[in-house]
């Protein structure tokens, strides 16, 4: 008989029921896989019985109740509407029949036979009931019924031919009966019909889905509905449930069809309805995630496995030998008892190892097994962790290493694994590895910690401010060298690379690091990665002690081009980015930093992402991008909480404080400054940044004395550590501004002049900041000239916020001199730049200067992009300087052209912009361009 779909089968059953109501009893054997939804079909058929004039009584076979004598027939008797006398008689017959079945044969086994008279009497109860009501007897999964019930059902089926009964039995295509003759006995009856169900076609699947979620959703995910279900009606229902759940939770139709809990439960339900052998093979497949070696895992023959895999595929659960979706596999695994799942994974690990499988696959099985006693397990976990870290899979690597530590019996090896675990955990959260400090320190004293690992431990202790412990570790290394112990190459490499790194961040501890001879240093740097680490840290140290060199950009970009965020390269990338940032090239550092932040995110390394975000915040500050600095500083502190940052918390916290202060968010800064910071931070580079940020806030809130104290302490530490360079922190300029507020102009001028002297030509940004303050200490008539120079320097240095401060001061200077027209022009430009930086305090200070500077120049062009497009390069250069308040003579001198040429360019500019004077030039004209040097 051909396979038929659900609706056609339902129509056939309705026809059989109509015949039974007419007194012509019928029997139907409905066969199909779990994919066909036969149980749902019978349920729907039973629900329609009353409408068709029949009384349904139902039962369901269960593998768990297969040994319960007359269990299925008992379900039918209990479901039948019998009068009291009939029910008592039937219950007595059931009890008597069960006793008969359970009688033991001479060999001790149950007889599994039921008395023929009891069978006849029980069936008579149902036959007599059909004389009062047309009966529809439905038994689902009849292949799971007990043998005694099957004998009774076969007897009943032979006698319904002339009764008002339709008996419908469903069974799995691959089901195995307790009484193997049952289906043959039924099908040889002339009034019995076989109905073989087929899985839903794609069109049938679409029809079922459209009924429940609508035609639009059915068509939008047409491929997914069928591809994930394979035409299995139960799986379709599970997918529909997940779709509806997602729609309810979001309030919108889901953008994609994602199998979830409903789908997983449908898969499990299918397997429990199927034969136990299918469930066994499905469980093994879920563990291995492939069919290879499945027979060996389960201890069965290949033919057995192939047969059950075919059954699973026909049922729609598999495609190409695998589950159709990972959620199906997950659900099957979750259904296993923990002990059973662990044992299967243990056997899978051994099989994979014997077959030379990938260490990551073997390690996953070991991990899921919980513990494997085989001697090779620890080495496999170590190797898998190394590969995972190289690929950016940090969390699995941590899991491998933790298990390796737990099962390792060799002390030396366990110390090595613990060090690797500390490094891996650091990538996720720097506070996690603190739990290993005591163990590793003890191992160091026992002589079990390698020298290179001891250096790594010392760096971790420094990060968390445990300076005494770090000194002890470094001292132990030094004593080993003094005692004549030869340091291995890895240890020498770490010592050589760590020296310039300490110089930049933990300068006071440099003296505790053991010295390595020049010959040893040269011999130790053997790998490209080690050379990059050394070169980047040396470059940063040079910037912070001697100043940036002209070739710094080329050197650093060469280092960064060859670097990826693998296990050892974070220090390389960090030092290189900071060398560009402190070296006055934040514009070059920004795109590189963004690139590495994206890589850290894709590699699921939150600790690295946070550290890079902290650097990105510092970059944004030096570009005057306060909103960007706030965003990246906040992101860094959100990814790693304050407690995880150790002494390095001063980095992102300082950027966030300075940015929030500049934007006038003083309540936010109050909360940030209320956060406790480790006192040890003030012995590091990050402490300098924190003092600078706190001083900035004190200045903004009118506490110059507090600000001066922080700036002077910052300068004292920088001098003590030989890091007193203006491109790190311009503490003299900051202290000069505090002195001006305190009424000490002479002291302020001395500080400013010293700051300018130290800048040379390498720090235009700091030079511009200092020139602004030099103007403040000068006579009013000299201030515009000095402020213009400051503006040119800051335009070159790329700091928009400091440029806005210069423009505000220039506006005030012109006001003081009574040049209100110029004040208005510069005020408009100052406002535009201040608003670009979100510097609300600067914007408010401009509003207090009066209407002339507070309002934009009349007739000013609104869109800078349009202006740039219609002016030539020469016209734009002249217009930029004219809008900045320069006279025609001054413009001619700066551009090395004649005054007449300047006038001609301005005339053409006015005509193109449809304005009549320089007062109407757009205030934002200089944005996106550079003022000539």
UniProtKB/TrEMBL annotation:
Locate the coiled-coil region(s) and give their ranges. none
Instruction: Indicate the segments forming the HTH luxR-type domain, all copies.
Output: 864-929
CDD domains associated with the record? LuxR_C_like
- Judging by the UniProt lineage, the source's domain of life is Bacteria
Gene3D superfamilies recorded: Winged helix-like DNA-binding domain superfamily/Winged helix DNA-binding domain
Q: Which UniProt keywords apply?
A: DNA-binding, Transcription, Transcription regulation
The protein's name in its UniProt record:
AAA family ATPase
Classification via SUPFAM superfamilies: C-terminal effector domain of the bipartite response regulators, TPR-like
Q: Any keyword DNA-binding?
A: yes
**PANTHER family attached to this UniProt entry:** DNA-BINDING TRANSCRIPTIONAL ACTIVATOR DEVR_DOSR
Say which species the protein is native to: Sphaerisporangium rhizosphaerae
Tell whether Transit peptide is among the UniProt keywords: no
């Amino acid at each position: 008989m051909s396979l038929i779909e659900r609706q056609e089968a339902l129509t056939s059953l309705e026809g059989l029921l109509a015949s039974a109501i007419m007194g012509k009893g019928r029997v139907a054997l409905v066969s199909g896989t779990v994919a066909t939804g036969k149980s749902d079909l019978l349920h729907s058929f039973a629900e329609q019985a009353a409408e068709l004039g029949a009384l349904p009584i139902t039962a369901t076979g269960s593998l768990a109740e297969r040994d319960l004598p007359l269990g299925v027939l008992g379900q039918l008797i209990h479901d039948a509407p019998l009068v009291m006398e009939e029910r008592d008689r039937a219950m007595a017959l059931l009890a008597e029949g069960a006793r008969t079945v359970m009688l033991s044969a001479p060999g001790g086994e149950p007889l599994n036979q039921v008395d023929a008279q009891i069978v006849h009497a029980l069936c008579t109860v149902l036959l007599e009931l059909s004389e009062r009501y047309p009966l529809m007897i439905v038994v689902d999964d009849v292949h799971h019924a007990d043998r005694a019930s099957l004998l009774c059902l076969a007897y009943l089926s032979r006698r319904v031919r002339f009764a008002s009964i339709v008996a419908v039995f469903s069974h799995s295509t691959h089901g195995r009966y307790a009484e193997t003759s049952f289906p043959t006995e039924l099908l040889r009856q002339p009034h019995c019909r076989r109905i073989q169900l087929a899985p839903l076609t794609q069109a049938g699947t679409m029809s079922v889905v459209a009924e429940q979620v609508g035609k639009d959703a059915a068509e939008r995910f047409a491929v997914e509905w069928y591809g994930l279900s394979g035409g299995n009606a139960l799986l379709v229902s599970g997918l529909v449930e997940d779709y509806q759940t997602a729609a309810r939770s979001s309030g919108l139709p889901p953008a994609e069809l994602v199998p979830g809990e409903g789908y997983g439960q449908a898969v499990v339900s299918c397997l429990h309805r199927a034969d136990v052998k299918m469930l066994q093979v499905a469980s093994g497949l879920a563990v291995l995630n492939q069919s290879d070696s499945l027979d060996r895992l389960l201890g069965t023959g290949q033919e057995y496995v192939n047969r059950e895999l075919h059954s699973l595929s026909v049922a729609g659960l598999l495609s190409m030998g695998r589950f159709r979706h990972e959620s199906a596999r997950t659900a099957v695994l979750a259904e296993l008892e923990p002990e059973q799942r662990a044992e299967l994974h243990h056997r899978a690990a051994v099989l994979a190892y014997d077959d030379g499988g990938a260490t990551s696959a073997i390690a996953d099985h070991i991990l899921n097994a919980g513990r494997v006693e085989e001697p090779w397990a620890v080495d496999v976990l170590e190797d898998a962790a190394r590969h995972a870290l190289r690929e950016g899979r940090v969390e699995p690597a941590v899991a491998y290493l933790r298990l390796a530590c737990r099962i390792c019996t060799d002390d030396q090896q366990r110390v090595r694994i613990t060090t690797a675990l500390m490094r891996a955990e650091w990538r996720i959260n720097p506070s996690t590895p603190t739990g290993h400090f005591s163990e590793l320190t003890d191992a160091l004293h026992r002589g079990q910690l390698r020298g290179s690992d001891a250096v790594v431990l010392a760096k971790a202790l420094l990060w968390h401010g445990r300076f005494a412990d770090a000194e002890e570790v470094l001292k132990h290394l030094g004593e080993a060298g003094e005692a004549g112990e030869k340091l291995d190459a890895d240890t020498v490499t770490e010592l050589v690379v760590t020296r310039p790194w300490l110089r930049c961040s933990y300068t006071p501890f440099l003296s505790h690091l053991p010295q390595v001879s020049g010959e040893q240093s040269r011999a130790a740097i053997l790998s490209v990665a080690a050379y990059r680490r050394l070169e980047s840290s040396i470059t940063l140290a040079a910037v912070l002690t001697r100043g940036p060199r002209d070739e710094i950009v080329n050197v650093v970009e060469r280092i960064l081009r060859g670097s990826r965020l693998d296990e050892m390269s974070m220090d390389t990338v960090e030092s290189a980015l900071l060398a560009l940032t402190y070296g006055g090239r934040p514009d070059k550092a920004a795109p590189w930093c963004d690139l590495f932040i994206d890589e850290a995110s894709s590699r699921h390394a939150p600790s690295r992402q946070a550290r890079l975000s902290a650097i990105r915040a510092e970059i944004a500050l030096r570009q005057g991008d306060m909103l960007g600095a706030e965003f990246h500083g906040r992101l860094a502190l959100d990814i790693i909480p304050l407690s995880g940052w150790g002494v390095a918390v001063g980095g992102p916290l300082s950027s966030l404080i300075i940015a929030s202060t500049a934007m006038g968010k003083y309540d936010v800064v109050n909360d940030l400054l209320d956060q406790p910071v480790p006192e040890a931070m003030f012995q590091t580079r990050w402490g300098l940044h924190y003092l600078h940020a706190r001083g900035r806030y004190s200045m903004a809130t009118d506490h110059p004395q507090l600000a001066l104290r922080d700036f002077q302490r910052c300068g004292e530490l920088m001098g003590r550590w030989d890091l007193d360079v203006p491109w790190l922190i311009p503490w003299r300029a900051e202290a000069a501004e505090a002195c001006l507020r305190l009424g000490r102009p002479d002291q302020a001028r001395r500080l400013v002049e010293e700051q300018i002297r130290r800048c040379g030509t390498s720090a235009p940004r700091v030079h511009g900041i200092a020139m602004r303050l030099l103007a403040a200490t000068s006579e009013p008539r000299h201030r515009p000239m000095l402020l213009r120079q400051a503006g040119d320097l800051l335009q070159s240095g790329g700091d928009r916020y400091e440029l806005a401060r210069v423009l505000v001061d220039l506006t005030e200077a012109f006001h003081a001199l009574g040049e209100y027209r110029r004040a208005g022009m510069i005020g408009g430009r100052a406002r535009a730049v201040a608003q670009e930086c979100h510097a609300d305090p600067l914007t408010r200070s401009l509003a207090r200067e009066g209407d002339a500077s507070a309002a934009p120049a009349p007739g000013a062009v609104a869109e800078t992009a349009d202006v740039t497009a219609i002016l030539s390069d020469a016209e734009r250069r002249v217009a930029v300087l004219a809008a900045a308040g320069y006279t025609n003579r001054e413009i001619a001198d700066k551009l090395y052209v004649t005054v007449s040429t300047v006038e001609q360019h301005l005339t053409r500019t006015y005509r193109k912009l449809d304005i009549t004077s320089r007062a109407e030039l757009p205030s934002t004209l200089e944005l996106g361009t550079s003022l000539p040097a």
